[in-house]
Amino acid sequence: MTLRHLRIFTAVCQCGSATEAARRLYMTQPAVSLAISELESHYGVRLFDRISRRLHITEPGRQLLARAGQILDLIDQLEEEMPGGRGGRLRIGASITVGSEFLPGCVERFSAAWPEVEVQVRVDSSETIEGLLLENRLDMGLMDGPARDGQLAAHPFLEDELGLFCRPGHPLLARQPLPPGELARQPLLLREAGSGARKVFESALITRGMEVSPAWESSSTRALKEAARQGLGIAVLPVRLAAEEMASGALCRLAVEGMPLVRSLCAVYHKNKYLTPAATAFLEICTGAKSGPAKGPGRQGGGGRDQLE
């Protein structure tokens, strides 16, 4: 069994067929099939079931895929870190809110300290980022709230409060503080399903026996703020991201009795993932473990805690 076997096996799992894997790897299909057969013979297990001319990974195959990903990742990291290597790469994912407000400052600080490391960024929903971490397609994710999967480790770095916002002059402003049940009778303007903010709000309502049926769903905070400003409903937003509108009087915050909406923004990575020195430095920047400038290779220093402002 060689690294070549593991790379071929991983490609077949990702592509779902030996033919597609062969095309990706610039190999012939018989050569790919032979490598899979050699792996199965080496371990004495069947890695795929061949049903209706399709490959379906077996449980032993899933176990091998998890370990193969770790091994190949370590080899790639070694190639990047050794003198004369490619310089290094850090694959970072972020939820939409964190990616737009918090991540750019972290990447800027990191790149100033580690200029030789290429940073690749993916901004998407928390659910998507979590899935990419589990597939080893990201090294680290910055997400709204802790990960749901037990295979992921989470480091909280910032408490983020959510609030309910409406247009000035809205009738509900005269009835504050509102009972939580009032929210079920209002048109709600919410982030998309799977987002951290949506999960926090849904959980708060469900624990009080209420269902969530939004009038609007959007991945754009700006769109939700504008809809609330036009009087189309009650928007659930991070308080930090509505500060400018509150200061200008464009939006008003509603008080709700006994329903705090607080979440922890977290840096997340796979528990079995080897964190390179560069990845560790990025984690420390995010979690505020250092004070002062970000510490690069061979440098001394540290930095204050970043804030969403």
UniProtKB/TrEMBL annotation:
<protein>
    <submittedName>
        <fullName>DNA-binding transcriptional regulator, LysR family</fullName>
    </submittedName>
</protein>
<dbReference type="InterPro" id="IPR036390">
    <property type="entry name" value="WH_DNA-bd_sf"/>
</dbReference>
<dbReference type="InterPro" id="IPR000847">
    <property type="entry name" value="LysR_HTH_N"/>
</dbReference>
<dbReference type="GO" id="GO:0000976">
    <property type="term" value="F:transcription cis-regulatory region binding"/>
</dbReference>
<dbReference type="GO" id="GO:0003700">
    <property type="term" value="F:DNA-binding transcription factor activity"/>
</dbReference>
<keyword id="KW-0238">DNA-binding</keyword>
<dbReference type="InterPro" id="IPR005119">
    <property type="entry name" value="LysR_subst-bd"/>
</dbReference>
<keyword id="KW-0804">Transcription</keyword>
<dbReference type="InterPro" id="IPR036388">
    <property type="entry name" value="WH-like_DNA-bd_sf"/>
</dbReference>
<dbReference type="Pfam" id="PF00126">
    <property type="entry name" value="HTH_1"/>
</dbReference>
<keyword id="KW-0805">Transcription regulation</keyword>
<dbReference type="Pfam" id="PF03466">
    <property type="entry name" value="LysR_substrate"/>
</dbReference>
<feature type="domain" description="HTH lysR-type">
    <location>
        <begin position="1"/>
        <end position="58"/>
    </location>
</feature>
<comment type="similarity">
    <text>Belongs to the LysR transcriptional regulatory family.</text>
</comment>
